[in-house]
Amino acid sequence: MYRPVALLLRRSRWPATRATQFCATHPVRRWYSDDGAQPVELAPGAAQSTTAATLESNPNGPSRKFTPKKIQNNLSLSNLKAQIAEDQAWKTQTDFDSIDEWNKENARLAFKGAIKEAGVHYAQVRLPCTKKTQETCRDMSVYYHQLRDACTCPLCVDPKTKQRNFRLSDIPERIMPRRMRWLDDSHIDEEKILEIQWATDVPGYDSSHVTRFSADEIGYPASYFFKKETQNRKQTLWNKSDMDEAQHWVTYNDYMENEDKFHETLNALSQYGLIFIKDIPDSRQMAEQLATRLGPLRNSFYGQTWDVRNDPKAKNVAYTNQNLGFHMDLLYMTDPPGYQLLHCLKNSCNGGESLFVDAYSAARDLDPSSWSVLSHSELPYHYNHEDHYYRTTRPVIEVAQQANIRRNKSIKHINYSPPFQGPFEVDQEQGKKWARDASRLINALKKFTKNIEEPSRIFELKLNPGECVIFENRRVLHARRAFDTTSGERWLAGAYVDGSDVNSKLFTTKRKAGVFNESQREADDSAL
Questions:
Q1: Residues annotated as region Disordered (predicted)?
Q2: Is residue 379 in some structural domain?
């Protein structure tokens, strides 16, 4: 039996009638309606086919005329309902002698899965019990366009390249199943299979083409877990005392070779945005090896990897021995790197301690007015040198486009890098308003800076040779104390990795470990 790969959904493309479900802590957009709410049905093609007769042609008043398309749709729907009834041999309560027998039949249908109702655009299905639901049946409305779009059979998706062989625009506007049923004798990992044969299909596909999904591929597609582990991931806000206890250290060998330890390290990095590696061999090449364990190196005009050490001709304050205040890297670029690595090769001089602050925690503790100003006002960032010029603008608090959730849960990124802040461009017609807004912005920035620099928030340590820190660039602010080059040498090797690559590694590592095969009932029930 052919097993389709995990169903991928496309967000915000499908009917959204009461379609928001929540996992344990964050909202998850689904493509079905759990409560079976019925969407309002309009006559297919009504805008084109409905006409009002004139008084001269119809003295009794306007009338409606059915087009062949509507008649065809009605016939297709009638045929589909008849086929579903025949496949399931549905019975009503009146067909049973007792309520107990009727309840047993309902329980049987719940275990098997059932098509409860079919419409022109959707069908309401009862998903059978699976390992993930732990014998908890679920009623959902599924939509024909998405079912067809998500088909991963060998005709639709090349098994080797995983590339689609059709376009979304190829799907008929009025697509509808010819037959839709749960297969009793077909399983994927002991799950029932929903099979759809199409009455109308993509040009070039004949009646032999079928689309098949397991129950969990419908209820829990791969995209559900990816969003849960990335956009809606568990994040623990921390201060100095928290990180003193929770700091995660892993040896170089475990990080590179032990999948279980690497899995734990990724979880800690996702949760706290900061982890440490020790016992690293003494080699300049280690920065690249450590970074590529997470994903491809992110290149920049600094190079794929770079050195942080005192340079008399430095074009960046980081390459001096001066104090370096809290900041984030490369915010002047359109897409700043998601993660940064700093591998310590030498650190024998006095000073040079590394400092870290959870910017999410500092932002959470702002008053509502300052939060509003910093999430709506954009600061300019630029890099202005002879051979390079970059510029962009960003709000200090970049919020996710989600409503009705707590402030600290809506943070997407923090953007804060005073060393590379650029000059404002002021619209002369809006100059007075800008001046008033600038005053509020400066006041809000002062409060945010005060939060950042509170000693109780700052986690500080001096990296030793053979140690590396990895941190989330747009969550964890980093800084460095000045150091004395006459007393020794300080040399760190650095690298960047994009956030999307780390998210991919986090997801695939968990999937290979079987994390997503566990029951999802507890997570879903806690959100109801």
A1: 45-68
A2: yes
Written in H, E and C, the secondary structure of 243-275 is HHHHCCEEEHHHHHHCHHHHHHHHHHHHHHCEE
- Residue 352 shares a structural domain with residue 471: yes
Cα atoms in the Cβ-side hemisphere of radius 13 Å centred on 498? 11
Contacts of 502 (CB under 8 A, 6+ apart): 269, 294, 295, 338, 339
**Dist CA 476 CA 242 (whole Å):** 14
- Retrieve residue 25's tokens: 């802590």
Quick: pLDDT tens for 342-374.
999 999 999 999 999 999 999 999 999 999 999
Q: How many domains does the chain have?
A: 2
SS3 420: helix
- The reply to whether 288 and 396 lie within a common domain is yes
Report how far apart, in Å, the C-alpha atoms of 136 and of each of 88, 117, 131, 414 are. Answer: 21, 20, 9, 40
DSSP string, 322-374: S-EEEE-S-TTSSS--SEEEEEEEEE-SEE--EEEEEHHHHHHTS-HHHHHHH
- 165 and 262 in a single domain? The answer is no
Phi, psi of 104 (to 5 degrees): -65, -40
pLDDT band with cut points at 50, 70 and 90 for residue 65: low
Could you tell me which residues are beta bridge partners of residue 118?
Answer: 123
Q: Give yes or no: residues 110 and 217 share one domain.
A: yes
Domain that holds residue 161: 20-48+67-230
Q: What is the CATH number of the domain that holds 37?
A: 3.30.2020.30
Predicted confidence band at 126 (pLDDT cuts at 50, 70, 90)? confident
DSSP element (H, E) containing 392: strand 389-395
Q: Are residues 168 and 86 in the same domain?
A: yes
DSSP line for 440-482: HHHHHHHHHHHHHT-TTT-EEE-PPTT-EEEEETTTEEEEE--
Separation of alpha carbons 182 and 195, rounded Å: 6
Using CA atoms, how far apart are residues 224 and 29, in angstroms rounded to an integer? 8
Task: Spell out the residues 6+ positions from residue 313 whose beta carbon is closer than 8 angstroms to its own.
Answer: none
pTM: 0.79
Burial state string for 475-506 with b = 16 or more CB within 10 A and e = fewer than 16: bbbbbbeebebeeeebbbbbbbbbbebbbebb
Residue-wise pLDDT tens digits, 274-333: 999 999 999 999 999 999 999 999 999 999 999 998 876 666 777 777 889 999 999 999
